[in-house]
């Protein structure tokens, strides 16, 4: 059975609710940290972010949650320890050291793992200069690989979120980049062709080459086993001093398969509006949780983003501490990215008819798109916006703002969101749960283990060695 990290953290309102029974089990030897930094500040050639000073989890009053912080709060932090099995019926967990932990309430935040090329039958994909990016060890390996090939060639496999951010980092480190992916354009799950065209042109101006509509089949290697070229399906050979792979993730559910109800469509653990699984004593949050989205009429989604991890974690804890006062989660899906001098945010769902707006030609762009379904705004994207402008597009999505004149929407553009957001909110039957969380802000109640840990909340525990 696969092994996963186990972490405990508890939040109540805007303060940490700490009990002496809290124990944090982590496979790695560092305190919990925020994953987004790994594809951004961590990969910079100069002044790079490093733990624990940057993007260790941030709590109330902007406190950095270092190892020292946990100790001061009376929380036992057990590093380098794995949970190798779980027995939901008996309410026990077994660690790699042979310790059995009994729990009353368990919060699962096992997150997700990066898909590996081996899973697609690609031989030789264990070479030392093939890199992934999911955790701090991956980031360290990637940084070291970049240092070994200044001015060299990198091939990025995958045109999604990780591929795009890693490609930008590689270019910043003065490495020539070729991106390979099977889709017609980058960020195929989110971007429209028009939006993708802008980013592809921008990346091209930075020296990135795109090879679209194909996949790799094998590698060429030297006598030491390092990759020297990537061989594509059409027979083309791409020179490579290093390879970065970003082809998706899979939720870490194996500890609980056969014990909890899974969401087959979303590949996660199915939970209700309180983030409660099919077992009433077990909750799931973050990348591993498939939960109902009120905005989408209760459709079950599994969202792979730090904002979802933060908010689902807080909601699960509220559900545990004050179940009678905690309503069903009402989450507004949110995604963002920052590369080079660009920065975009997206809210909602990319379904329906698309209407673009703004300037797609400027080197300092401000453009976006609305997705309209059944005469209402279902999703909104904005590049280059201000804080108030991003908040405006989030508001119109949250309200499912009605579009009275489709023909005028593209002409109005961002002004539509600004005007609508300034109007009194109609009674849509959806609870407004505060303003959107901006990803660059230190968020009170952050659970920054978007996919790095499983969270266990013990009212009491029993330890014994097997």
Automatic annotation (TrEMBL):
Q: Which residues cross the membrane?
A: 438-460
GO MF, one term, reads: monodehydroascorbate reductase (NADH) activity
Q: Tell me which EC number(s) this protein carries.
A: 1.6.5.4
> Which Pfam families does its entry note?
MDHAR3-like_C, Pyr_redox_2
So which cofactors does this thing need? Answer: FAD
- SUPFAM superfamilies named in the record: FAD/NAD(P)-binding domain, FAD/NAD-linked reductases, dimerisation (C-terminal) domain
This protein's UniProt keywords: FAD, Flavoprotein, Membrane, NAD, Oxidoreductase, Redox-active center, Transmembrane, Transmembrane helix
Leading EC class: oxidoreductase
On the tree of life, the source organism's domain of life is: Eukaryota
All residue ranges annotated as the Monodehydroascorbate reductase 3-like C-terminal domain in the record: 332-417
Q: Which InterPro entries match?
A: FAD-oxidoreductase/Apoptosis, FAD/NAD-bd_sf, FAD/NAD-binding_dom, FAD/NAD-linked_Rdtase_dimer_sf, MDHAR3-like_C
FAD/NAD(P)-binding domain: residues covered: 26-312
Q: Which reaction does it catalyse?
A: 2 monodehydro-L-ascorbate radical + NADH + H(+) = 2 L-ascorbate + NAD(+)
User: Hey, which family's this protein in?
Assistant: Belongs to the FAD-dependent oxidoreductase family.
What is the protein's name according to its record? monodehydroascorbate reductase (NADH)
Lineage, uppermost ranks: Eukaryota, Viridiplantae, Streptophyta, Embryophyta, Tracheophyta
